[in-house]
């Protein structure tokens, strides 16, 4: 099969272009390569039980900030607020409703990351929320789902640019 090379000749589909820039509304838009930064793989049991016990619960807040920051850098099309998400847990944790909404939104962000990586969506925002009542298993579940996204890019170091599927 012969390699297909882009052409530089202007034709009917190239109207409205000047110096390779497409004018708004003229012809088809150039293909934009979507990319983001690879996330870090973490141990699910360490995130859920080990490190929060050792750090008296502080690691869970650090982990929550880190995954939101990584999700934001992985798919920049969906803005997240890592600091705001942690502040909800710190200052509104007593309300019970605000953390549940935050966990639900985190589940949606993980599902969007799975979609962007070209994976079938297996993360349930409802499970991310309700597993908080079962020994805090929501952190185990969310990290397990995030690891699926990391495994979609085998051999890639965290922070390395990766291409997104959708």
Task: Explain what this protein looks like in three dimensions.
It is globular, with a radius of gyration of 20 Å. The protein contains 6 helices and 4 strands; from the N terminus they run βββααααααβ. The chain has helices at residues 44-54, 58-74, 82-92, 97-116, 125-130, 137-151, and strands at 17-18, 21-22, 35-37, 161-163. It is mostly helical and 166 residues long. The strands form 2 sheets. A two-stranded antiparallel sheet has the order 1-2. Strands 3-4 form a two-stranded antiparallel ribbon. Strand 1 and strand 2 (21-22) form a beta hairpin. Helix 2 runs antiparallel to helix 3 (82-92) and helix 3 packs antiparallel against helix 4 (97-116).
* Unreliable stretches: 1-26
Shape: globular
Can you summarize the main beta sheet? 2 strands, antiparallel
- The helicity comes to 40-55%
Number of helices: 6
- The class by helix and strand makeup works out as mainly alpha
N-to-C order of helices and strands: EEEHHHHHHE
Describe the strand arrangement of the main beta sheet, using strand numbers.
Answer: 1-2
Number of strands: 4
Please state the oligomeric state of the protein chains shown: single chain
**Average pLDDT taken over every residue:** 87
